[in-house]
Amino acid sequence: MALVNNMVLSKFLGLCPFFGVSKKLSSAFSMGVAVLLVMVVASAVTWPLFHLLLVPYGFEFMRTVIFILVIASLVQIIEMTIKRTNLTLYNALGIYLPLITTNCAVLGITFVNIDSQYSFIQSMAAALGAGAGFMLVLVIMSGIRERLDLADAPKVFKGAPIAFIVAGFLGLAFLGFGGMVG
Amino acid sequence: MRDLMKTLANGIVRANPTFILLLGLCPTLAVSTSVDNAFGMTGSVLFVLLAANVIVSLLRRWIPDRVRIPTFIVIIATLVTIVDLALKAYVPPLSKSLGMYVPLIVVNCIILGRAEAFASKNNVRHSVADAIGMSLGFGLAILLISLLRQLLGTGTLDVFDVRLFSIPGLTDSPAAIFLLPMGAFFVIGVLLALFRWLGVSECE
Known about the structure:
Chain A is mostly helical. Chain A has 7 helices and no strands. Chain A has one domain (about 15-180). Chain A has helices at about 15-20, 25-55, 65-85, 85-95, 105-115, 120-150, 160-175. In chain A, α2 (about 25-55) crosses α3 (about 65-85). Chain B is mainly alpha-helical. Chain B has one domain (about 1-195). Chain B has helices at about 1-10, 25-30, 35-60, 70-90, 90-100, 110-120, 125-155, 170, 180-195; strands at about 155-160, 160-165. In chain B, β1 (about 155-160) and β2 form a beta hairpin.
């Protein structure tokens, strides 16, 4: 999950913060941890909600609304917690912390858990893997971008374009993980 | 009327959500493997964005400031659910092709972003213009990307099962990489650079 079906590089989820925060290594790391946390907790909450509440009452179609509300609340709680315990971290993450709510990867993993019909344990494992993968890619990307900013790219490519192309190569590289784990 | 058109044009060129604002990239890159998908996605986004902008604009004086983001999210989520179910019922193959990226429209930064930045502060007529403009901008962007990816990736151009044309040499051994995720990254990277070179992009 973390490597081959990487959230960002093969499922395209979580791109906004990917390109926004990944310029500095330290903030990328914190962001990654925050997203991992939200993914795992969100999966832990949404899975039972879906299977124990929505399905028996025939409300499966409500899942989009319910899941996103759960995620939004979780992010709000985490935001308040970080603000109280670690103000520097809070400032470092800035606007990208509440933006975890709109991170496709978080909502995405909750959907994947349901669509792939994972059990609770499998969902937790998937969330952990997905979160770890996201964090990995974010950290790698920020490390590369720190150097890219100093490199001599052609003017039109500087910034976003070269970042995308590099992401493409990164994705190619990750494809190589295909045969590794079963 | 003039400034309605200006708002509309804004969404297509100067503030193109995909190429300039860099919003809503997830679905753009994910589904742009075929032109049919691009049309489907644009249609869905148009519906949701239009309805969301209208509703938010109508209610803008009554939504308390502190809960406005969750309110927007609920409105958008409901609209997305409607679109998702409608697609599943009326065009199942398209629904299958777009997959989970339809429900993911709810976290599409374009929609939430416009609700927050525009519809909550402007009247209904302007919000409608903005919604149409942004959707068209998004649509053109995703169409362009899909066109390139489908053409280079399969060597042919099929729109709704009608073969428009095919490139002879490419059909036998297409550059399949473009259908893969990394192809999308390459395409958008090059396109972004191209637009900047043409002087269309403003500074990031």
